[in-house]
Amino acid sequence: MIAVIILGVVIGLLLILLLLPVTLDLKFDSELILKIKYMGITLFDTQKRVTVKKSKKQKAKSTPQEDTSAKKNGFIKKTYKQKGLLGTISYFSDLLAIVIKKLWWAVKRLKFRRFKLNIIIATADAANTALQYGKICAAVYPITALLQSANDFKAKNINISADFDKTQSQFKASILVKAQLIYLLITAIGILVQFLKLQRKEREKYERKQH
Q1: Phi and psi torsions of 20, nearest 5°
Q2: Per residue in 131-152, is it b (16+ CB within 10 Å) or e — as a string?
Q3: Phi, psi of 12 (to 5 degrees)
Q4: Which of 27, 88, 90, 108 could cross-link to 33 by cystine, CB 3.0-4.6 Å?
Q5: Angle subtended by helix axes 46-60 and 64-72, to nearest 10
Q6: How far is CA 81 from CA 72, 101, 112, 125, 131, in A?
Q7: pLDDT (tens digit, 9 = 90+) per residue, 150-195?
């Protein structure tokens, strides 16, 4: 009987923790900045981690390899190295579209308090710039349209443009999401699962081409 009571208390506490609010603050401007708050308490902040790592590096005079090992393991950076900026934007737009459609019931429970997106398409060739611009628009705008159909989505600024005078594309994004922990976890797991599926399909295509 005591074991049942303890188990019930543990399950109850876990349910309470899963239903408590989480804030996800994500920004990208040359580098990824992520801050996670749980019940108003900051649990994770990439800016603070970078500052701590730099101070430790200066004291211990560590090698550059130690500082970049964690970056190499990130699947976003790995995808960026494989596909470049425009390819990465298109790839993750397709990924998010799949996740949103499959987990719409969970995504609708996310509160988007800030959403800013600025993409400037630029390549060395004008024709390619126009082509890439069309691809990015076709990939990104359906995502924003899906999110705008959600109950609580507030987009401050969405801009996608082509610059034929430059050769380097630019990408800036900022988003603030609030939700109960359980819905953020479900969405995050959904993104990871679909990412692994897409990676497997691409690997299979590559292997078929090799044969």
Answers
A1: -75, 155
A2: ebbebbeebbeebbebbeeeee
A3: -60, -45
A4: 27
A5: 150
A6: 10, 28, 29, 21, 21
A7: 666 776 788 999 999 988 999 999 999 999 999 989 988 988 888 8
In the chain, alpha helices (H): 2-19, 46-60, 64-72, 75-102, 104-107, 126-148, 181-210
Answer for the pair 112, 174: CB distance below 8 angstroms, yes or no. Answer: no
The residue behind tokens 């630019």 is 170
- β-bridge partners, 21: 180
8-state DSSP, 108? T
Cβ–Cβ contacts within 10 Å for residue 60, how many? 9
- Decide if 164 contacts 129 (C-beta within 8 A): yes
Distance, in Å, from the CA atom of 186 to the CA atom of 103, rounded to the nearest integer, reads 8
What are the backbone angles phi and psi of residue 108, rounded to the nearest 5°?
Answer: -65, -20
Residue 180, number of CB atoms within 10 A of its CB: 18
- Predicted structure pTM score: 0.74
